[in-house]
Each structure stands twice: as structure tokens, then as C-alpha cells.
């Protein structure tokens, strides 16, 4: 009976048993473990690249008046709007076919990670840059920034030490949400660059009606999402303890 199947599946989840893949004839946990490494490397490299570029861009361009931020904002909007597969095709055409610097497929070595990581990082960079710049502009207009400047602090110290601390919290929270989704949301990039990984495995399972494998990857992705965002909340509180008071509705703000 269906209800008996349901409770049998739940009891298996408690024991860490996600069933067996119809197509691969292997336990779902083994399939996920085999596919996790390449996807984790791709997601981590893309997120690190996006954070570095967005923090640098927001730090250099925020608070410069109405003229200077226009080109970065346009680039950020384009980065968010352009589909990942189109970015990947352009990078493949330029740096794999026209100028053969990087391999066009596979997951062998650092070279094969560069183009997929850039493809995945560009849309994230656009969103993170917009969030960071908005909070940077807000922080630079606060009275404590004026106080810091009157004490003789350089503009570099004002931005990197004082303003960045207040601007990084929402970007950090957003980065955690992105990382949790990336582990199962890389199907397009992994398929385009013929890379092994969870995204490509999930796509194959959906096309082949491999229900246990699809459910296992979705459950695993949900667990990763919860764990990553919990760690991000702890890290955000460590960076700025007032965020804990704000979450609890306290008067610390």
C-alpha cells in the first residue's frame, strides 16, 4: 500500500538510506557521493570568484556620486540578465575554439575548471555587486563614517575597515543562499562543458524518470541549503553581533 511505502521510505531516510537508482543500479547515496566532488569544486570556485569581483567593484565604485557608478551598474545589470548558457558558449568559442587556452570539456585539472567557474560566477557577480553597492552607499552616509573621517582615517581604511563590515552582512547571507542552490543548480553549466557533477546527474535522472535518484538529490540539496545558511547566520552574528538583536526584534538597532 502507498502509505506503507511512504513510511518505509521515511524509515530509510532516518537510517541514511535513499534507495537505489533505477538507471545506475547503485545506492543513491553512492551516486551522490561520486558526483559531489566536481560540483563542490565548481560551486566553490564560482562563488569565490563572484565574491572577490563584487567586493572589489563595490568598494571602488560606491559613493562616487551619480556619474561614476553608471558603467558598473550597467555591467551588473547585463551580468544578471544574460543567460548562463550563452555566456558559456561565448567563452567556449573564444578560449577553447578560437584561442585554445582552456579545454572545452571534462573535469581534469584546474584548466578545465576556469571557464565553467567564470560562466557560473558572472550572474552571481551582478547580483552581489548590486547588493553590496547599495549597502556601501548607505553605510558611507552614516554619521559614524563622518566621525571616522574627522579622526584622520584614510579613504581606504574607511571603506575596507568600517564601511565594508556593515555592507557585507546582506551579501554574506545572499552568498549562503546561492551556494546552497548551486550544488544542485549547475545542470546547465555541467552539461554545456560536459563535466560530471550533481547537476548533470540530476538532469539525467529527470530525463530517465529515475525517481529515487531525483528525490535523493533534492533531499540532499535541501539539507545542504539548511546547513550552509545556518553557518552563514552564525558567521554574520560573529561579524556584527547587532544582527542577532535585529533578528530577535531587540532594541540594539
What are the key terms here?
flat, disordered C terminus, mainly alpha, 253 residues
Could you characterize what this model shows?
The chain is mainly alpha-helical. 75% of the residues lie in helices and 0% in strands. It has 11 helices and no strands. It has helices at residues 2-14, 28-61, 70-81, 84-98, 111-140, 143-150, 155-182, 187-192, 198-207, 211-239, 242-247. It starts with a helix and ends in a 6-residue tail after the last helix.
Helix content: over 70%
Oligomer: single chain
Q: What number is the mean pLDDT? A: 80
Percent strand: under 5%
Helices, strands, pairings?
Elements: H1 2-14, H2 28-61, H3 70-81, H4 84-98, H5 111-140, H6 143-150, H7 155-182, H8 187-192, H9 198-207, H10 211-239, H11 242-247
TL;DR of this structure?
By secondary structure, this protein is mainly alpha-helical. The chain contains eleven helices and no strands.
Amino acid at each position: 500500500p502507498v502509505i506503507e511505502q511512504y513510511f518505509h521510505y521515511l524509515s530509510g531516510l532516518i537510517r541514511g538510506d535513499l534507495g537505489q537508482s533505477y538507471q545506475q543500479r547503485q545506492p543513491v547515496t553512492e551516486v551522490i557521493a561520486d558526483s559531489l566532488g566536481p560540483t563542490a569544486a565548481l560551486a566553490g570556485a564560482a562563488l569565490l570568484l563572484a565574491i572577490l569581483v563584487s567586493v572589489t567593484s563595490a568598494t571602488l565604485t560606491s559613493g562616487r556620486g551619480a556619474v561614476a557608478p553608471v558603467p558598473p551598474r550597467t555591467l551588473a545589470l547585463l551580468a544578471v540578465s544574460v543567460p548562463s548558457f550563452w555566456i558559456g558558449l561565448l567563452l567556449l568559442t573564444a578560449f577553447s575554439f578560437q584561442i585554445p587556452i582552456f579545454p572545452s570539456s571534462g573535469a581534469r585539472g584546474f584548466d578545465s575548471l576556469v571557464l565553467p567557474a567564470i560562466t557560473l560566477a558572472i550572474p552571481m557577480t551582478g547580483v552581489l555587486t548590486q547588493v553590496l553597492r547599495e549597502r556601501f552607499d548607505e553605510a558611507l552616509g552614516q554619521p559614524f563614517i563622518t566621525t571616522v573621517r574627522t579622526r584622520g582615517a584614510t579613504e581606504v581604511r574607511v571603506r575596507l575597515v568600517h564601511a565594508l563590515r556593515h555592507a557585507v552582512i546582506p551579501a554574506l547571507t545572499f552568498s549562503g543562499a546561492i551556494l546552497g542552490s548551486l550544488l544542485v543548480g549547475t545542470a546547465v553549466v555541467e552539461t554545456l562543458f560536459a563535466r560530471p557533477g550533481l547537476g548533470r546527474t540530476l538532469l539525467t535522472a529527470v530525463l530517465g524518470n529515475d525517481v529515487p535518484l531525483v528525490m535523493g538529490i533534492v533531499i540532499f540539496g535541501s539539507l545542504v541549503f539548511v546547513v550552509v545558511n545556518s553557518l552563514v547566520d552564525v558567521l554574520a552574528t560573529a561579524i556584527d553581533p547587532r544582527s542577532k538583536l535585529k533578528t530577535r526584534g531587540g532594541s540594539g538597532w
